[in-house]
Structures are given as structure tokens and as C-alpha cells.
Amino acid sequence: MYYSSTLNRLLLTILLTFFLTGCPGPAPETPEEAVKSEPLLEPFDAPSLAELDEKVEWEEQPVLDSLELMRERQSKEKPLVSVEEALKLKNDTQENNEKILSALGRLPENDEQVDWGATINRHVGADMKSTNPIMGSSAVEFEVGSLTGFGLFSFDWNFRPFAVADTVVSWQTSKDKKYDKVVMRDDLTWSDGEPITAHDIVFSFKTIMNPDVPVPAVRSGTDQIRWIEAYDDQTLVFFHKEALPTNVWNLNFPIIPKHIYSKELDSDPTLQDSEYHVKYENSPVTGGPYEYEKRVRGQEILLKRREGWYMQDGKQVRSRPYFERVRLRIIEDPNTALLALKNGEIDEMALNPELWKTQTDGKDFYDVCTKASGLEWVYFYFGWNCETLFFQDKKVRTAMSYAFNHQEMLDELCYGLYQPCTGIFHETAWMSPKPMTKPFHQDLKKAEQLLDEAGWIDHDGDGIRDKEFDGKTIPFRFTIMTASRPLSLSICTLLKENLDQIGIICEVKATEFTVMQDKARKHQFQAMFGGWGTGTDPDTGMNLWKTGEGRNYGQYSNPKVDKLFEEGRREFDKDKRAKIYGEIHKILYEDQPYTWLYYRNSFYGFNKDLRGYVFSPRGPYGYGPGFSSLWKPVEK
């Protein structure tokens, strides 16, 4: 898989957002306003490559094959049981879970084991908004982009970066950490047959940094690059603004074909409104292992293996993707998706706690499927818009955390499968604070005390707390928005019931996923239920928490947090960095811009014909971009 840098740098969005009455966000730019946008790139005269090589001391960096890296690791790990034994096991203990993963999570031993004509039917819970990789902002868009796009960099299970051998010949970093030089392979082509060159990389960078192009998600991190120069069709140099340990994570942004998008970029910088761009939205040109075969909006996305990816001039130049086709079935309702899994209509799906505990233990499940779980650093939360009258006070936000019945959520709604979350970093992460922050427990008296201190008191005796703002009495009545998923709605409903006990009215509103994304970006909400996955480096959290950043949807602001993020991205010593990010974690815990709820471990159901699922803190199916581990065996 070839994930865009948004998956490298940003926290993987599992965002479930919301729109709340009374909190209008900024209006979208009019065309006249867009023309006045300030340029994001300053003019830059790149030195010649000879001049650069003369003054720079280059250090070689690793260029690796992701599959070979995993094969080498697995060669040292002996399966605990045979495949046949694993397929007979019920996953009802951690011991059995480890046995299942050790046998079924492996790569094939040889090509003869693989059914090269197989189709994998993946499950996704929502449709994608755009097929253009630089427009991506949701998990499903990044998932599709990992199959249809290509990248220059990846990382292993310890988040150590390397250049991908499928696309890169060599990678060098200057000793002073201000430059990276990459020589690309010359056998890369787009799906329309045109060569992929260094000029496509530069064009994509400049397009992302064009202020009139609406791509805030992928711009985060890319905006830390000073300049990129293509010295020929294969040679690139990345010029960094300053020497930072995080620079490597900014190099691998999504790539679009220059020969397609340069023609109408100036006339339609939205990349989506004109007839020309609609044409390529519906029939995209791709650069990765797969291309689009069919898309039925709201139903499925069908991709087919691209021969031009792995074959050039009659010779195989890269590993052939294991599946001939990848079908992503869009099924919003988890119960409907589980029925499709049991019927063999899809090959995998994430299981919520109820499904794992109550609907996947019977013969009807194990006749066709198995299941497995693993640690994943994905946390869920209630997000408070700190610019609203309701949640601008830290005492009120903290009261929300005391009012909520965390234990009932964990024990009853989550069936005891999830652990409580106490902040932005998981306790097993190297950057988590020591000692770790403690979970909140419901304390209604403490919540009421904090609300009283913040001035939210029932002044008129109607049973609802209120407060005066600019001479007008405002009742504490707000809306929290979430996706229409059973667990999400149950958790928000529990919050509503808890707050009702202390004189606060909370209305739960479910909204379509892409609409929620848009509302969150524009800050058009009062509260939300959402979740974030982990980035490859704690610096990725800057986009969520620094004042004014693109994904700081709740408009949180703390100058000390801003300063610590700047310090963290300039510190090369890992132990010192850990202390900095641990301090950020503790400050956010004190400020409670979120009520942190739980870490969602990976719980998945798989068809028994599927192999190669490997769990990591970032989820199943391998560790980093450039790695696709799933496959199906030949039928015996």
C-alpha cells in the first residue's frame, strides 16, 4: 500500500463530527476573495546540483523493499500452530488470538501459494468524497489512495523511515539535515501510459501549496518544506526551512499527474468544479498498483490491478500485487456488514464491541470466518468547541468529563473490551507522560461544583442551568453530533442522560459523514463525538492542537502548548522529545478540550480464505505505507 503523507504525518482520521445550532463557522471563500489569497511559497532560486553537491556532505539513507522487510522478520517468528489448527480455533482467549495471528498473519512462502486472480472484498463504512489524492481528508479516501497512489517513503513497525525500493533508487540526507536528495526509478508510469517523473512531484507540491486549492489536510506538513527542485526527470532535492527531526515525515505528500492537472489548474483551482476536472474525478489517472474500474457512489469502489505498475517492456520490475481486484463495499450499518461477512460477500470488517461479544461466537460465524484483535492507538472523545459560550471555560469542560459515566460506557456499551483513554498518547507510546494521567470517573457533585464556579446556575428555577452573556440569559442547551452508528449514538445518548441529571440539555444529532467533516473544518459545531488514530511522530499532533492549525476543529488555544510543539520539533534527542510531548499530554489533560473516552483496539472479522493480516498501533494490514500484506491462497 502507498499511503499519502497525510497518513504519515497526520493522525488517521476516524472523525465523526457534528453541527450544532447557534455556532456558525466562517463562510466559504467567494471567488473574488480567493483571488486575493496570499502566496504560501516565497520565491526561491535553487542552486545547481553541482553547486549543492560541492557544499553539502551527503549521508546515505536506507532504500528497502517493504515485503522483503516483513518476510525477513517473519522468518524469525515461528507459527504457534498450523494454518489448519488456527482455522479451527475460536478466538475466545488471548492465547488463541496469538495463535490465530501467528499462523494466518503471514506472507506466502512462495508465489505458487497465491491465488493471483482473486478479488478481495473490503468493507468501508462511508463513501469517499473525492478520487483526487490531494483532496483526501477521510480514512476511506486514504485507504483508496494507498492502493491507487504511489509514494517515495515508508516506515517499519518501529516507525523508522526508509525510501521505498519500488519507486526510489537512492536517498541521501545532508549531514546538517537541511536537504534530502532522492533519485527516482525511471520505470514508473501513470495509468494512461505517461511516465512519472520528478516534475510530477514538484508540480504536486506547488499545487498543494497554492492557497486557492482547497487541500488543508494534505497541506499540513507539506507546508514545512521550503522548496523542491527537479534537476532532471529522476533527481529531486527537498530544501527544508530548517533542520528538524521531523523533516522526513514531510517528504511524501500525495502525487498527481502534471500532464493532466496543469492544463486547467489556473482556470479552476478547486480541482473539482469545472467539466474538465469532473471528467478526471470520474475517470482518475492513477500512479500506484491499482486503477479504477468502476465506482457506484454510495455502494462500491472497484479497483483492478495495473499491469503497468509491475511490468515494463515485458519484464517484471516490481512485486505483483496479490489481488487482481479490490472491491470496497460501502456498508454503513455494522449489522448489515456483519451479515455480508457471514455470507461471504465481504472478506473483512472491523467489529464493534457488541458484534465481537454477542454475534461472532456461533457456528454461523465460524463456518465461514475467524476473527483477531490487536493493540491500536486509536482514541475516541467528546470534542468541545472552545470558542462557544458553553465550552470556553476550562471548568465547564472538566465538568463534562466528571458528569459522564465512563464506567458504564466501558462495561456495558463497550462490553469491557476497550481501555479508558486519558489523553493524546497511549501509555505504551515512547512519548507518553511518566507517570501516566489517570482516567476520569463520574462525580456529579464535582461536576455541579465546577459548573457553579463557572457561573452556570439555574437562576430562574426551570431546571436548566443558565448564564448571562452581554445582558442576555443563555440556557445551557447544546447539540452534539455524531455518525449514525450504534455505538456512537449510544455513547452520546449516555452523555445526554448524564447531563440531564445536573441541569444541562444535550441534544444528539446524527449527520452524514462527509457533511460532518465539512462542518468540523469550518468550526460549525458546539460539540462532537470523534476519534483519531496515531501519526508516525508526535509532531503530527501540532495540526490538532496548535492555535489556528487546520485540524484544530475545537479552536483550542494555549500558548504553552504552542511553544512546546515548536520545541519538540526542534529537539533531536529522543528522551528529551519524549518529555516535551509528555508535558503537552499533561497540559491538554488539565485543559480538557476533549473528554477522552477510550482506546479502540483493533477487533476484526476475516473470511477464512484471507491471509496476511498484521496488527500495529496504526491498525491491521501491515505497518507502514508501501506495504500490502493481504493475500488469498490457491484453493486446494
TrEMBL record:
Residues 1-27 form the signal peptide. GO terms for cellular component: ATP-binding cassette (ABC) transporter complex; outer membrane-bounded periplasmic space. GO terms for molecular function: peptide transmembrane transporter activity. SUPFAM superfamilies: Periplasmic binding protein-like II. The keyword Transport applies. One of its GO terms (biological process) is peptide transport. Residues 169-550 form the Solute-binding protein family domain. It comes from the Bacteria. Keywords: Signal, Transport. Gene3D superfamilies: Dipeptide-binding Protein, Domain 1 (3.90.76.10), Dipeptide-binding Protein, Domain 3 (3.10.105.10), Periplasmic binding protein-like II (3.40.190.10). It holds the Pfam family SBP_bac_5. Transmembrane segments: none annotated. Belongs to the bacterial solute-binding protein 5 family. This is Oligopeptide-binding protein AppA. The gene is appA.
